[in-house]
Amino acid sequence: MIYTTPDKTNIQTDIAIIGSGCGGAMTAAFMAEQGFDVLVIEEGEYVDRAHFNQNPRELIPKMYRQNAALATDDQSIRILQGKVYGGSTTINWMTSLRTPSHVLDEWADLFGLEEYRPHSMELIFEDVEKRLNVHKVPEWAISPANQVILDGALKLGMHADRLPNNSKNCIGCGGCGLGCHYDAKMDMRLTYLEDARKNGTHIYTSTRAYLIRPETDERQLVKAINLKTEETLSIHAKRTVVAGSAIMTPLLLQKSKLIKSKLVGKHLHLHPTAAVVGRFEREINPTYGIPQSAVAEHNPDGTGYGYWIEAPDTEYFLAGVNHTPTGNQRREDLKQLRYIAPLIILTRDGADKKSSGEVRWRRGLNLQNGRFSLKPFPSIRYKISPTDKRHLLMGVETAIRMLFAAGAVEVLPYFNPPPRMTKPEDASIVHKLNSGPNQISMFSAHPTGTARMSSTQKTGVVDKTGKLHHYNGIYVLDGSILPTAPGVNPMITILATVKRALQIGNLNL
Ligand SMILES: Cc1cc2nc3c(=O)[nH]c(=O)nc-3n(C[C@H](O)[C@H](O)[C@H](O)COP(=O)(O)OP(=O)(O)OC[C@H]3O[C@@H](n4cnc5c(N)ncnc54)[C@H](O)[C@@H]3O)c2cc1C
Ligand code: SF4
After folding, report:
1. Distance in Å, CA 491 to ligand 1 centroid
2. Which ligand is nearest to the CA of 64?
3. In the CATH scheme, what architecture does the domain 139-174+270-349+384-444 have?
4. Using one digit for the tens of pLDDT, what is the confidence trace for 314-333?
5. Pick from 78, 12, 84, 87: which is nearest to 498 by CA?
């Protein structure tokens, strides 16, 4: 049953789950199937296909955290996150890749997570892929923007391939980032939340949890507010699962003072992402077609760290983001939209373990809802290390060459201001440009790691079952628990990791 306003305000349940994205949905389905009483609390609004009218003015405030303008404190990295029924999967771009084996082995070697070795994860990946209808995008469905990757990589002698995604009867309208009107995207709403709901899970949308108070090992109080009626809810649970995402989960744990581990909020990974656009003489029409249906990858040092190149969702609201900032040039460039192929370069951060990111409440004068305030504010800080930056810039250089190889007549890497390049030899200039904060445009849709999993309290916030090391009864099961950046788009990794944690521990129930 889904409630947009609460039917009662004092609730007893076996399991309270905060968040309805990958982690929350998987946990709800897994536990409800066993007959437990499950309650999911989701801050975002309930949405179904009738809401997905492709109107960004209406849907961005409804579905994106902070109107899609969430960013690091210095504004140098924009962070895209869903705040909606189904979490970020409702607005995501469907790339569905398994965690590479070397990453799972790294987790076992560095964090004692033996149960997460590749052979133990194989069946889980299969199971998740089956539920989400993951399949390789057929050749005929590759859009011209994605074809640029396949053509360009072939000419550069680089490996590239079609990507798998989680869709059924997708018509390639290109609107994934504003929710799929055709119910073709197999997001959490249509898969694990649906399974959970059929097994009796209660789901409260427009309801924000703001405090977790542990009472005994078998009892926690979760306080929440319904954002439509402003009623306060008291939820008494035997187990509480925090699945609010790698940005929101640590903030809730910190606010609830569940911070005996000094690591809560630390080790934020972002897969820092840069963008390059190429202008062609032929029409590319990047706003149409299945996003991210091809990939080219490179692991320059042979260490498992490096970059990969994709062609993202380019709806109109995203097309202008990070482009030439203002003025006539911007207008002229955007008029050319249908001739443009945008590529993104994603970096697996953590190569030298020196990139550092943190999410925490800070004090000091700040702007809240348009007013200056001295109240604590949520702060996201991130510093990219020289090695990760080098990988990112190598990726930018490759993407420029790839665009020219595929026939672009002009290429603009998103620096500030973007240099306009007309030949492949210009590409190497990127290493000489100022790429400090706000000098190269970066964004992320992949925050992970802020409550990382490890067999010891010293190196992790949760154990191999997702339980907080320092508190019984309270679990974190979302992107926060990934011990290192997965190096692939993280949806399948998060789903599989959460399922494995539940298989191992079953929330100790
Ligand atoms: C635009 C975009 C495109 C993406 N494309 C891809 C892709 O192609 N492939 C891929 O693998 N990954 C992609 N991702 C990333 C992927 O969707 C996320 O990594 C994944 O959904 C994260 O799962 P999660 O459970 O950690 O959090 P989320 O899915 O973000 O869900 C967290 C939910 O918790 C809710 N919440 C937070 N705090 C509270 C609270 N206090 N009370 C109640 N509710 C709360 C939030 O509102 C949110 O709905 C994309 C992400 C975005 C934003
Ligand atoms: S491209 Fe496919 S999955 Fe995405 S919104 Fe359109 S029909 Fe839905």
Report:
1. 8
2. 1
3. 2-Layer Sandwich (3.30)
4. 877 676 666 666 678 878 88
5. 87
